[in-house]
Design brief:
The chain has about 180 residues and is α+β, with helices and mostly antiparallel strands. Helix content is about 25%, strand content about 20%. The strands form 4 sheets. Strands 8-1-9 form a 3-stranded mixed beta sheet. A two-stranded antiparallel sheet has the order 2-3. The longest helix is centred in the C-terminal third of the chain and has 18 residues, at about 140-160. The chain is globular and about 50 Å long. The two termini are about 25 Å apart.
């Protein structure tokens, strides 16, 4: 059964345990590859997790002149391959979500790769395994579809309208983002 990442931004409590878990993951060199952002720091303390959306047609890979960003058969967009990355930083400018970061000391790009070493075997990514509020979940595709349907029904009841032509259209269905 296929597993997907599912985010519910309104559940985020800003504890940053996802970032701490990411730093502890093997191969991350004590650097987090996900972030916790404020919706509007001047207005509220509400936060949301920012992970790589693993785009179907990732802009970071499209703008890479060295072809250093690889996409797995499952659709996971990996960090730039160290031996190919030329340090041009096109990927950091090309991503509409601002996910890839550039390490000036190492002269390479790094980003969330959805803990591919774990998720390829159906094991939850580090961030999802420690999230105490279930803002980040690694769930079955069918469960995600049911949650999305229920959310849509709640939005209709509460009077919210889905937005069109926004950046979330780049996100594939296997990454079950709930943005509002």
């Amino acid at each position: 059964m296929k597993k997907v990442m599912y985010l519910e931004f309104e559940r985020c409590i800003g504890c940053r345990s996802c970032q701490a878990a990411c730093r502890e993951c093997g191969g991350h060199d004590a650097k987090e590859r996900n972030y916790v952002e404020y919706v509007d720091f001047m207005e509220s303390r509400h936060t949301f997790p920012m992970l790589c959306m693993q785009c179907k047609d990732p802009a970071c890979a499209r703008v890479c002149p060295a072809n250093a960003i690889q996409i797995t058969e499952e659709g996971v967009v990996l960090s730039a391959m160290e031996e190919k990355c030329i340090g041009c930083r096109n990927c950091t400018f090309g991503c509409p979500f601002g996910i890839p970061k550039f390490d000036f000391e190492e002269n390479k790009m790094y980003k969330c790769d959805m803990c591919y070493d774990r998720t390829q075997y159906g094991i939850s990514p580090m961030c999802a395994s420690v999230c105490p509020s279930d803002a980040i979940r690694f769930i079955d595709f069918d469960e995600m579809q049911a949650l999305r349907r229920r959310r849509t029904q709640m939005n209709l009841i509460e009077g919210k309208k889905p937005t069109e032509q926004d950046k979330w259209q780049y996100v594939p269905e296997f990454f079950g983002v709930y943005s509002d």
